[in-house]
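Input record, target 12 of the design panel.
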């Protein structure tokens, strides 16, 4: 039994999914996290950061008949950890899918909507964040989301990412801290911080521009909109770092590729979009430029994960 879930890049609108009153643009990336249930083996319910054990405990309160101890699992991920690409949410959604399948009677399946809702509730209780990531990795494709202060955001529109485009991920090699970031932004919200208000307005406009570029299949306009979203993150919310800015400048000089930090910032990964035909050259030039001054960074070429559930990787037995 196996569940494979893509990660996600945020093209614009970090935090707007839970601040409310703004739009975000997410894109699922085919860098999956895979959870495989090991038949006949169980694990102890132990540490608080043991996600398989904690997800199993959560499900025991919703699915009758589950054993006290969760089945053993093997986990693999193609996405770098703590990099702003929601690999942790991908893991949690994959665990919910695999465990719900393992604990359901033969011929019955927990609806996908319940899986996404439960995964959101599970993470919200721990991090107090939003639901963009859960929808993004579960739905696939590109999503335009309307934020809500509590609960999953509303999916306003869905699009398939153009087949002749590629996403270039630059992993900075530095980790981000989502928990501290969310606490800081919630304090800003409570205090009526003007910088946060300015960020929300500018990020919303950048999201509108990014979605228009996706609908028009204009990757240069998308790059400009993502750069605008990054500038709002950096200038109003301090979500960039000197290293990330240096990597952005290097990418523009070496490959003409505009990059945007994905996720809460303070580290993690940057993402850019180029034509598929140009991707090998862009990746090679970036890797060569990084080799000397930034040996801890790496370039990861990626495809978008499809949005159709009939084509998306899902639970398989």
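The sequence produced for target 12 reads:
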């Amino acid at each position: 039994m196996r569940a494979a879930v893509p990660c996600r890049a945020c093209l614009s609108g970090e935090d707007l999914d839970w601040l409310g009153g703004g739009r975000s643009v997410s894109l699922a990336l085919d860098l999956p996290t895979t959870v495989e249930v090991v038949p006949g083996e169980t694990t102890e319910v132990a540490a608080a950061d043991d996600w398989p054990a904690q997800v199993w405990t959560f499900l025991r309160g919703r699915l009758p008949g589950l054993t006290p101890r969760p089945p053993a699992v093997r986990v693999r991920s193609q996405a770098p950890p703590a990099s702003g690409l929601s690999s942790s949410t991908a893991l949690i959604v994959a665990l919910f899918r695999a465990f719900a399948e393992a604990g359901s009677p033969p011929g019955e399946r927990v609806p996908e909507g319940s899986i996404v809702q439960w995964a959101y509730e599970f993470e919200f209780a721990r991090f107090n964040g939003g639901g963009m990531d859960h929808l993004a990795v579960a739905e696939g494709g590109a999503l335009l989301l309307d934020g809500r202060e509590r609960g999953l955001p509303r999916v306003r529109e869905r699009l398939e990412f153009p087949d002749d485009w590629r996403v270039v991920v630059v992993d900075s090699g530095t980790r981000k801290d989502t928990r501290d970031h969310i606490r800081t932004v919630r304090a800003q919200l409570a205090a009526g911080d003007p910088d946060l208000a300015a960020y929300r307005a500018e990020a919303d406009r950048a999201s509108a521009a990014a979605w228009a570029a996706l609908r028009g299949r204009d990757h240069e306009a998308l790059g400009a909109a993502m750069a605008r979203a990054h500038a709002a993150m950096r200038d109003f919310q301090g979500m960039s770092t000197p290293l990330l800015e240096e990597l952005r400048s290097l990418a523009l000089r070496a490959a003409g590729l505009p990059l945007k930090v994905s996720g809460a910032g303070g580290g993690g990964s940057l993402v850019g979009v180029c034509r598929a035909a140009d991707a090998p050259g862009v990746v090679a030039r970036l890797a060569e430029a990084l080799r000397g001054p930034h040996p801890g960074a790496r370039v990861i070429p990626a495809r978008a994960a499809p949005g159709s559930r009939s084509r998306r990787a899902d639970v398989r037995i």
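Residues 309-317 have pLDDT under 50 and may be disordered.
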